[in-house]
Amino acid sequence: MTATFDPTRQLAPSGPLVDEDREHHRFRVHRSTMTSPEIHALEMERVFARSWLYVGHESEIRDPGDYVRRPVGGKQIFMVRNKRGEVRVFHNTCTHRGAMVCRKDQGNAKVFQCFYHAWSFDTDGRLVGVPDRDAYGDGLDFGALGLRPVARTESYRGFVFLSYDPGIVDLVEYLAGATEYLDLVVDATGDAEIIRGTNEYAIEANWKLLAENSIDGYHAVPTHDTYFKYLVALGTDLSGGVAGTAKSLGNGHAVLEYSAPWGRPVAKWEPLFGEDSRDEIGRLRADLVAKHGEERARRMCDTNRNMLIYPNLVINDIMAITVRTFMPTSADRMEVTAWEMAPRDELPQLRQRRLDSFLTFLGPGGFATPDDIEALESCQQGFHSGGLEWNDISRGMAREPLANDEEQMRTFWRQWNEQITGGAR
Questions:
Q1: Residue 187 placed within a domain
Q2: At 182, phi and psi to the nearest 5?
Q3: Residues 103 and 189 in one domain
Q4: Closest CA to 56 of 48, 41, 66, 64
Q5: Counting beta carbons within 10 angstroms of the beta carbon of residue 31, is it exposed (0 to 12), middle (13 to 18) or buried (19 or more)?
Q6: Nearest residue to 312 (alpha-carbon basis) of 326, 323, 330
Q7: Are residues 103 and 230 in the same domain?
Q8: How many domains does the chain have?
Q9: Is 247 helix (H, G, I), strand (E, B) or coil?
Q10: Contact status, residue 68 vs residue 87, Cβ threshold 8 Å
Q11: In a shared domain, residues 260 and 362
């Protein structure tokens, strides 16, 4: 088969992929980073294989034997709580001939049995059953044939991460300044849980576009104009605008924190929630003040946070709490999974209000997600049209970064560039 030449395909330049000139306030990224299969292959090896990656939340596996199965970093894994209540994460492959031993997305099991030849493993990964075991004689060490745990598993405030790199720094060191914002989310929520069910969809665009988009305050007003008009029509006062900052949190993580222009179920009322909820939300706010003090409670109630934990975890604490991951399947396509986080055992009317807020803006059919998908796929199509080599990400370099500047994206790209060029472990 003869390969054909695609004149629109952008190959990596001979120079840098990320070009930063602080003196002239210029930051640009070569568009081959979004289109090159070779760069995609490097990302799998140097980014996803050498970072801490989000697996799931401990609330998804509350009881011994509870498990969830999902791909993480391009590999099939499953997370299970063992008899002692510990969280274990295993490669989802039988040590006999390779078939996946966990075949459902979630459930409860004492034993995972491979359907191919019926080898069985307990929740600690030990091999506990082999049909016709006598056929193997005495030479085979069955104790060494248990399921393989991933190289590293650690948890922070209920968020479980894995790494395929045994030499990676501890999770808390990796999270760096992101721990402050995870603490805000968890402390405001109390006994947090991931609500059962997921949003899953694909975007025909490079995964790094969604990393940018998720912490991009600059696009909100033009791209989501319909949503803002909808809020105004319901009586929400947006005349004060949005004030906030963009911060680097270290190790590629970044956050936007800004005044909430809309209601927040945690404790900021707006007309969308209905008049009958005003007193109830006021009581929620008073409880947070009593527990955390006026200033910390104000941040919890009145400010939004869009946070990226490098490379591919987004936690949006806005009109609802979204936990979202995205994984490239090629240079031009990603798969996205999103969950909603909420207080466990909250009253039904509170849960319904939270779900409505989540789906209205953040759901696959909400105001925001289709807009963002269209924008990112349009960018990807534009990259393949050719004619230009560089994206510009210079906004705000000449001043203290604001919420609608691009310092948070530059933070992501600096870490990405270090990993791709071999400068970071």
A1: yes
A2: -65, -40
A3: no
A4: 66
A5: buried
A6: 326
A7: no
A8: 2
A9: strand
A10: no
A11: yes
